[in-house]
Amino acid sequence: MSAAKIKVLCVDDSALIRDLLSEIINGHDDMEVVAVAPDPIAARDLIKQHNPDVLTLDVEMPRMDGLDFLERLMRLRPMPVLMVSSLTQAGSEVTLRALELGAVDFLAKPALGIRSGMLDYAELIADKIRAAARSRPRQARRSDAPAPKALEAPLITSEKLLIIGASTGGTEAIRQVLEPLPANSPAILITQHMPGGFTRSFAERLDKLCRITVKEAQDGERVLPGHAYIAPGDRHLELARSGANYVARLNDGPPVNRHRPSVDVLFDSAAKHAGRNAIGVLLTGMGKDGARGLLTMRQAGAVTLAQDEASCVVFGMPREAIGLGGASEVVSLDEIAPRLMALVAASGRAQRV
After folding, report:
1. pLDDT tens for residues 22-72?
2. Could you tell me if residue 151 is inside a domain?
């Protein structure tokens, strides 16, 4: 008996996008578009009628804004939602808000040649729908929720580094890790799978929420405590040495594990240049990027953490790393930030003995 197909409902005011998504999705044997809707009002009845596994949702639509609809949906009937967003500054900010509200992931509309552009990443769209169908919908943090209490600042040296990788579900997971960190936290390098144009908005949003400084990484800049550096959405980020200092390096090398930036590229560089002075963290995400690199970090003497299944939106990358033996610890998302500070504090005590 064949497995049931993933049922998808596409909500978009553009007939072209609805047709393209239907063509792409129906071209895969394991998924089908059960209905399309031009706006959220029409979508409400179709959700009740078809009980879809995944919803694709545009942002700017008539009769009801996509974000308003998403907020209500995740409160009343949480389900996996993929946002369909334009590759613009405004589009990236709205998309990040959608991820905060509980959307699993997003699809970026190409700026030009929409038909050819969408068809070019038909496999990526299918992968995102598969991951969304397996994901755990989560309630958004309330807007009036208090900011997390700052963790105690450990005694650190400029040598200690935190190296983080994530994909699907990672924007909110990274926020949850960074937000409670003290202002003098060790330097942090982050690769999150995102297209170019989105990572700057992501860094700016985190910078407003966190006690540390969060920025998009620049090639050659010194890596400093109290700062987090996020890989630009279309370039690999690596850790390097320049004399006594750590520096960030960006490169335009080919995709690794189908990604640029790639988590494996960052983790491999940390293993090479930081060894036991680094702590590796692999968060939620589909696929296997970062799994081998986390093992390489562990073999180089680093403590390595993988997010546990229960707290992942998609338990893909961490599961692969755990299976390879790359994780020295498996930790729930809530406990990762406190565990990182405990490890840094323990390292500081060991250095003083």
Report:
1. 999 999 999 999 999 999 999 999 999 999 999 999 887 777 788 899 999
2. no
Based on its alpha-carbon atoms, the radius of gyration of the chain, rounded to whole angstroms, reads 20
Token pair listed for 59: 């942002």
Separation in Å, CA 149 to CA 153, 182, 222, 235, 342:
12, 10, 29, 34, 16
Task: Give residue 146's pLDDT band: very low, low, confident or very high (50, 70, 90).
Answer: low
Looking at beta carbons, which pairs linking 206-215 to residues 24 or more positions away fall under 8 Å? 206/174, 206/175, 206/178, 206/230, 209/147, 209/175, 209/178, 209/179, 210/178, 210/179, 210/181, 211/150, 211/181, 211/182, 211/183, 211/185, 212/178, 212/181, 212/182, 212/183, 212/185, 212/188, 214/178
Domain extent for 271: 161-352
On whether residue 45 sits in a domain, the answer given is: yes
Residue 295 lies in a domain: yes
pLDDT in tens, 244-257: 899 999 999 999 99
| Pair 25, 127 in one domain | yes
| CA 330 vs CA 9, 47, 185, 282, 318: distances in Å | 35, 36, 22, 10, 9
Q: Point out which residues pair with 192 in neighbouring strands.
A: 166
Catalytic residues: 167, 193, 289
Instruction: Tell me the pTM.
Output: 0.91
- My answer on whether 54 and 183 are in the same domain is no
